Amino acid sequence: MKDNKCYQYSVYLRFLGHFVLLFVIMTMCSLNATAQDIEQLQKNASITYEKMMQAKQSAENLEKDFISSEKKLTEAKEKLAAAEREAANAKKKSDQAKTILEQAVNHWKKASDDLANEWGKSEVK
Q1: What is the pTM for the complete model shown?
Q2: Of residues 68, 67, 66, 70, the one with CA closest to residue 78
Q3: How far is CA 44 from CA 21, 47, 48, in A?
Q4: Cα dihedral sign for 62, 64, 69, 73?
Q5: CB proximity list for 56: less than 8 A, separation 6 or greater
């Protein structure tokens, strides 16, 4: 009976030994897989960080370009407004000059008519 208990005990110890060995192997594989997973995650994080920094730089450059373009647009609008004012002033002066010319032509015609009438009267006498 003692041998039977010893045999059962040795089977139990072997089973426990195999179980512990299997547990250690699985743990080691798991740790190795976990280490590989962590390493891959670190690589992915590093690559993603680089892409993020490139995107940030690109966004900053585009923001600078936008501000520069907006400034140029504002300057162009100001120049356009000044040119429109100049054109309006030139039109006003041109219209005034035409009015003065028409008045001068009318005065000249009246003076010419008056002169012609006086010559006509003097010839009739």
Answers
A1: 0.50
A2: 70
A3: 34, 5, 6
A4: positive
A5: none
Sign of CA dihedral 75, 77, 83, 85: negative
Angstrom distance (rounded) from CA 54 to CA 46: 12
Averaged pLDDT for residues 20-26: 73
Asked if the model's pLDDT at residue 122 lies above 80, the reply is: no
Per-residue pLDDT band at 38 (split at 50, 70, 90): confident
What gap in Å lies between CA 1 and CA 54, rounded to an integer?
A: 78
Residue by residue, what is the 3-state secondary structure of the chain? CHHHHHHHHHHHHHHHHHHHHHHHHHHHHHHHHHHHHHHHHHHHHHHHHHHHHHHHHHHHHHHHHHHHHHHHHHHHHHHHHHHHHHHHHHHHHHHHHHHHHHHHHHHHHHHHHHHHHHHHHHHHC
What whole-number distance in Å separates Cα of residue 51 and Cα of residue 46?
9
